[in-house]
Structure to design on (196 residues):
């Protein structure tokens, strides 16, 4: 069994299992945000980025099944195990990122990695909504303006403010987190369909 995963391996798995374009874009955004967070926090950048890339690996499968979403994240772990991976730290973060979203999410967030993945993958939705409303996209995007949108509960209403606020549990202020995520996503803006 492989006890870690590289970005190349994660990309191969993404290409094999996840075909829906917006989910692939979300996975790529999550990858760069998690890698940037790992770099800032002195964590394993390769592992955190790769985990961000594959955290929703099962979405095409579970959304096609009746009540399949109740298996979301569990199915990702099954896929990874079938592919020969045993990465407890990543498996924990993947399972825990659904806590509070699904009835079956029985793995609570408890580690820095857990909170970073949940906050990092969630903030991508807020930033995507914010940037898409701006004619200049990322140019001139600011933490102050993003924070104002964050506080408006009607804006990107399906984005969990609670998950984003949990970034404090890894030792980061929300403003710094927003800047890290904005910078990371701006770097790949030309790859993401929603920003074209």
């Amino acid at each position: 069994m492989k006890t870690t995963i590289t970005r190349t391996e994660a990309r191969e798995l993404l290409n094999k299992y996840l075909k829906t374009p917006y989910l692939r874009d979300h996975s790529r955004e999550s990858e760069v945000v998690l890698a940037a967070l790992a770099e800032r926090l002195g964590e394993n950048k390769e592992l955190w980025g790769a985990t961000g890339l594959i955290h929703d690996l099962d979405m095409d499968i579970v959304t096609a099944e009746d009540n399949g979403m109740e298996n979301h994240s569990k199915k990702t772990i099954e896929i990874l195990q079938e592919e020969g991976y045993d990465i407890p730290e990543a498996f924990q973060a993947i399972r825990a990122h659904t806590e509070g979203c699904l009835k079956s999410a029985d793995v609570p967030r408890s580690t820095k990695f857990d909170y970073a993945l949940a906050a990092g993958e969630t903030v991508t939705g807020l930033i995507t909504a914010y940037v898409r409303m701006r004619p200049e996209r990322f140019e001139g995007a600011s933490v102050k303006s993003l924070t104002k949108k964050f506080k408006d509960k009607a804006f990107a209403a399906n984005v969990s403010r609670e998950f984003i606020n949990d970034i404090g549990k890894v030792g980061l202020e929300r403003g710094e987190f927003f800047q890290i995520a904005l910078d990371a996503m701006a770097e790949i803006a030309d790859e993401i369909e929603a920003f074209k």
